[in-house]
Structures are given as structure tokens and as C-alpha cells.
Amino acid sequence: MTNTTHELAQVNIARLKYPLESAELKDFVDGLDPVNAVADTADGFVWRLQGEEGNATDERAFGDEWILVNMSVWRDADALTAFMYQGRHRELMARRREFFEQVAEAMAVMWWVPAGERPTVADAEERLLHLREHGPTPYAFTLRTSFPPEPSA
Question: 6-134 has which CATH code?
């Protein structure tokens, strides 16, 4: 049964190896619009963070100019997973080590938001820090260790 009171927010951040305008990141940058177009029409897609360019490359997290933010809202984890692991997104992410630094700490987090609510980068930073400090909880979790939405009051 589909939950109609909550939607799944997700953020993943990545630390660039090179400047966004560099030749080393050309394939990544060129792939953003096609991948975003697929996301925008994917079953269960609700919303994604966008700047003036139609992507989120101008958004940063933790005050770090080298960190890119990818944040979106989905109907549920099944819809997010279906998008993540197939097609153009999968192809581009298979090359992530070419584009991004490997980081030991958690760089992705999910949480439930009331239907219609749109998270901010500050919300994402807070949830990511919570996950790093406490591990997966109903407040901030991972795809591997997820939780259902808490009942509405």
C-alpha cells in the first residue's frame, strides 16, 4: 500500500576531484541533464533540488565549494531504488570514482517528510550529521537500514 501522508527525501553529496568546468568532469557534467530528464519522468519521482541551470551544481553543503548536493523526494524507497540502479543514472554512477573523491564517512541519507514538504540543504546537512553520529535511526537512515514513516499525530 502506498503511503500518502509521507514522501521519502534523500540526499547524497560528493566531493569533486576536479573543478566542475574541467575536462576530467566533462562526461559527468554532460550526463546531468539526460539523467535528470529520466528522473523527472520516473515512476514515483516527486521533486529534486534545482538551481537556475536546471540541476543542483550551484548548491553546496557544509560550506565546501568542492561538495556537490543531489537531493530529491520520492514516493517511496522502491521508486528511488528503481531509478538508481538502472539506465543512465546507473551508467554514470558506475564511473563515480573518476569524478569524486572516496570519503570514509556517510555521504547519503534518507528521511521521511510530510507529503508536499520540500527539504532544504540545511535539513540535509542536519540529517547527514545525525546519521554519521548515531547510525541509522527513524530520523536519518540508509537504503540498507530503513524505517517506515512515523505515524502522524
Answer: 3.30.70.100
